[in-house]
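Hi R.,

Here's the chain you asked about this morning:
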Amino acid sequence: SDQDHPSCATSNNNSAYNHNIHTRMEDKISDSSTEQLGRQRILRRRRIRRLAVALITFALAFRNITQLKIDPPTRRTWEAIIHNSSCQTEPGSELIFTTNASVFPHPPEFTSISTLFPRFNYSQPKFACWYACPMHHPHFVQELFRCFSLWEIQPSHHPRVLYVPKRQFWRKIGNLAIFDKQFPISSGILHTLMNSYNVTVTNSWNDGTPLRVQEMMEKDESVSPFAMVSREHAVKWRDLFVPPEEEPTSRRAKKRLKIAVVNRPVARKLLNAMDARDNIAAAFPEHDVFEHHLNGTLQEMIDFFPMVDVLVSPHGSQLTGIMFMQRCSAVLEMFPHLYYTPTYFSSLARMFQLLHANWYVSHAAVPTGFLDLKTRLANTNNNMCPSMEKLVSAVDELIQKRQDCIDSI
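And here is the predicted structure, written out as tokens:
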């Protein structure tokens, strides 16, 4: 019989084996299909949940904006301020406006050439500005401001020389390709002075007297960190980089302002920068409010800062760009706990006739005098989470002061 025949037995066994394999494969396919359908249902539910959350968030934000009321004629109240912060907010200090010397005592930002250069003597036939400062662009600008005033007061036919004898500085400044790669903003400033103001950079000078500037670190009480001989020098410096500012008449008529929140990528940054932007935008729908990240080039500073009417930013090197802002523009500078240098960028703001306010975002009292360098270095990575209600109030005050300033021009 077929059962007794070996080949038939093998065939039957194979048939049974194949049947079992097919059955298991069908079961696996069925299980796989069920599992795939289950995953699709989960993904579908997640999408629906995300959409619902987005719709609810949009509805709440829209409600907050529509609940904003403006009481005539200028008094502004906020009945609904968004408080969606991922950090614990800090009210910090009151605003400290730094323009008025009676309110905020400060050393002068305009002073004599002999104060800036103690060894200066008008009888000297020729002189070069001796560069001896770190490359970091705020300090680079500090030094070149003084050099610029030195070049401005000398006879026009004399060469404008930047003397860089120190090897560690000349290695960078003397090789513009390296300088541009490591310090693009400082390099851009130097390129402009060389190309548009005929400055010569050298590490060897035998044709006159090289003059070193007066010590200018932040603790110095005799001269502001940023200083020149006169406001005319400051205006001429600004004109080398940016177009002339708008006429006061057109600025008075300007109704839609540009309000920028400029954050830092690391160290002393705002932890709730997006909340700051959203709250300011909700409170001032009649203005353009945006957050901006600087990419670290001079050209971006030149394009960005002149168009900003109100700037909100932590203390940091990005604030060097306020020298390109137009007169009466407003700057709110924020400091974290145990990092406070109140006269540093405020001196730059006064030099270019800006409105400037310090805000110490800390639970502690505002430090009196200067915090020593050791304390600041130990706390340089402290970040901030400012109160949104207080921030909006500060911006409101700066907008009004800006308008008063322009009206007075």
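One quick note: The longest helix spans residues 6-66.

Cheers,
M.
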